[in-house]
Amino acid sequence: MCQGSAVTDSGGGTGVPVRRSRLAEYAEMTERPPGASRRPVAAEGAEAPARAEANEAAEPTDAEVAARRREFAALLETFRDTAVLVPLRDGGWLTADFGGVRWILAFTDESALARYALARDEADREWPYQAVLGARLLDVAVPEAGVPCGVAVDVADGTERAVLFPPASGVVPDAFAVDRVRQGGAPR
């Protein structure tokens, strides 16, 4: 299993390094201060680099971002109300650690689980599983993990069909979201 590089901060001025998930950094990068421009600001008398202009063209508009957020919110609600299959392994649910996050692996049906088993070259072994509501995974299992945790659905099906529900506010309980700040100012 791959691990992302560790990023630390000062822990709210305490001088004690605190491990931060890369997801927290990604969340911070998506937020803009109110009224901030998407256009890069060039120094007085200098032109903005052509590369910055090219990147600006690829950025989604505010309307596109809002539409994607609505789409994700609808997908999240559907997931919360749906029973998924969670394979059992070593006395617990099958998980994978990646990028500083523990992911509970879930599958929409037996075919999706079989594709995962084939991709891992483990189709010849038995794959016991448990049917679990998505809401139970997000609201109960994530907090019980004891580490930043999210849910990965149909991971063998590529970017077109696989879905990640990261440990972010609005997805998991706020107390377990990596993009929330603990009391005292230190990020989770």
TrEMBL record:
Low complexity bias locations:
38-63
Report the superkingdom from the record. Answer: Bacteria
Return the Basic and acidic residues bias intervals: 22-31
Q: Where is this region: Disordered?
A: 1-63
Provide the protein name: SseB protein N-terminal domain-containing protein
> Where does this protein come from, organism-wise?
Streptomyces griseicoloratus
